[in-house]
Amino acid sequence: MRFGAAYVFHLGERYSVEPSVAIDLVDGEDVWVAGLNWTVGW
Asked: Where exactly are the structural domains of the chain?
C-alpha cells in the first residue's frame, strides 16, 4: 500500500515542478520515497 503527497509549483504557462513524498507499506516494512517531477506542457 502507498500513501503520498505532492504539490505543484507552476513556473509560467508551460512548466511546473512537483516535489513529492510517499511511504510504502509492504510486508510489515516501511519504505520512504521522495521525488521531484519536472513537467513541460505542449
From this structure: 2-40
End-to-end CA gap in the chain: 33
What's the CA gap between 20 and 24, in Å, rounded?
A: 13
**1-42 pLDDT, tens per residue?**
999 999 999 999 999 999 999 999 999 999 999 999 999 998
Q: How many whole angstroms separate alpha carbon 10 and alpha carbon 22?
A: 21
In 1-42, where does DSSP find H-type helix?
Answer: none
Q: Which residue has the cell 509492504?
A: 26
β-partners of residue 20 are 6, 35
